[in-house]
Amino acid sequence: MNDASYRDALFSTPLDRVASFSFDEQVVRCFPDMIRRSVPGYGQIIGMLGVIAARHLRHGAHVYDLGCSLGASTLALCQQLPADAFTLDAIDLSPAMVQRARDVLAEHCPGYAIGVHEGDIRTCPLQPAGLIMVNFTLQFLDPADRDAVIERLCRALEPGGVLILAEKITFADDAQRTLMSDWHHDFKRANGYSELEISQKRNALENVMIPDTLDAHHERLTRCGFTRHYTWFQHLNFAAMVAFRN
Ligand SMILES: Nc1ncnc2c1ncn2[C@@H]1O[C@H](C[S@+](CC[C@H]([NH3+])C(=O)[O-])CC(=O)[O-])[C@@H](O)[C@H]1O
Ligand SMILES: O=C(O)C(=O)Cc1ccccc1
């Protein structure tokens, strides 16, 4: 998707002090490789977005891609739907991501009504929408802010509108949590990451990315106004949910 994408080697050399993970220029340069080699099921989840939109999106409706990074979710819609099917705003807090997402989407989705904006999903203005995608982003918010975000997304959706939420998840059961985490690290090893890369990145993500259990997500969706929601994908400690606005 991205001609100038590099292999992720950010945590490959010993670091005196592992700084907290941030979505800066360095991460942007290797992001497609990093996310593909780090998130089990990423390609399958992203690939379904256009398929889901083709079935559920009202023609001409507005769409949000919140925490868009380089716009992979938006790109997936463009691959399944014609340019007149929707308008879309893609929003991300990282200026480096936004700058790069603009180039990627201009190159790969010419003719589509897509705006890419620097913004915070906790506060950005939202117009009525038929589809809101929040993929692997809620996990980076302070847990205390998550209810308010899901509530405002529910309010922004039109009746019949759809929220797609993909997240890293944790497990209440200790043995299951440990097994899924071990297998996730095995997955990363199998994708070429070293022990050092895995452990330094884990440290960098500590207190930055805080996953919820699937139960906590579904309880929040109910609390925040969604009456019908399901998990439609799970692979190790990653999952995708769908919630429908009545
Ligand atoms: N408050 C916030 N407001 C807006 N953006 C934020 C905020 N906090 C973090 N971000 C942004 O959320 C994105 C998370 S990555 C999303 C992948 C993408 N969805 C994909 O499907 O390729 C997931 C990952 O790296 O694991 C980053 O670009 C942050 O800058
Ligand atoms: O790498 C990890 O351990 C993850 O859980 C996923 C991820 C992917 C890309 C940036 C940050 C976290």
From TrEMBL:
SUPFAM superfamilies: S-adenosyl-L-methionine-dependent methyltransferases. The gene is cmoA. Belongs to the class I-like SAM-binding methyltransferase superfamily. Cx-SAM synthase family. Catalyzes the conversion of S-adenosyl-L-methionine (SAM) to carboxy-S-adenosyl-L-methionine (Cx-SAM). It comes from Kushneria sinocarnis. HAMAP family: Cx_SAM_synthase. Residues 63-161 form the Methyltransferase domain. Keywords: Methyltransferase, S-adenosyl-L-methionine, Transferase. This is Carboxy-S-adenosyl-L-methionine synthase. It holds the Pfam family Methyltransf_25. InterPro entries: CmoA (IPR005271), Methyltransf_25 (IPR041698), SAM-dependent_MTases_sf (IPR029063). It catalyses: prephenate + S-adenosyl-L-methionine = carboxy-S-adenosyl-L-methionine + 3-phenylpyruvate + H2O. GO terms for molecular function: carboxyl- or carbamoyltransferase activity; methyltransferase activity; S-adenosyl-L-methionine binding.
